[in-house]
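FW: tagging you since you asked about this chain on Friday. Here's the raw sequence from the shared folder, copied in full. Didn't touch anything.
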Amino acid sequence: MKYERLTREQLEELHEEFAKFLATQQITKDEWTKIKQEKPKVAEEELDLFSDLVWEGVLNKVEFIEHFSPQQIFLFYFDDHLIHLIGIKVNNPAVDLQTSEGYAWLKQNLMNDDVDLYTSEKPITEDRNKDIFALIKQGARITKGELYLYFEKLVHA
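HL: got it, structure written out here
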C-alpha cells in the first residue's frame, strides 16, 4: 500500500466509485460479498488498491496545502518541479495561531517584531504525491491557496 486505507466513512461516501472499481475487475456485488467472507485477505488488498487509487487522484490535483501550529503557519505551493514554502512564525507564546483570536492578532500585527515571514523552496522528489501525502499525515490540509497567494504578495512586494 502506497498511502493509507480510506476510513470506513470515506469508503461509505465513495461506495458508488468502489462498485465501479470492482466492476472494472469483473467482480459483482455477490462475488464481493463472497470474497469478504471467504477470502478476507483478498478483500483487504482490494480496499487498499482502491484507497491508493483514490489518494492518487486527489493528490494529483493538489497545488496548495497549509499547516497551522500554535506559533507557526506553513503555506505550501507545488509546481511541476519545486515545493514553495511561505512560513509565518510568531515569537509570542501568548498567541495561538490555531485559534480565531490568535489568527486575528496575526492579521493586525503582521509587521510586528514578533512576526517573522520567510520563504524557502526545494525540489520535488521523484514521487511528488508521496511528498504531499507526508505533509498531510503531519496535519497539513489541502486548500485552494488563498492564504499562500495573499502572503506571496506580501513577501514579494
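FW: The longest helix spans residues 40-61.
HL: agreed, and Strands lie at 64-68, 72-78, 82-90, 115-123, 141-143.
FW: great, closing this out.
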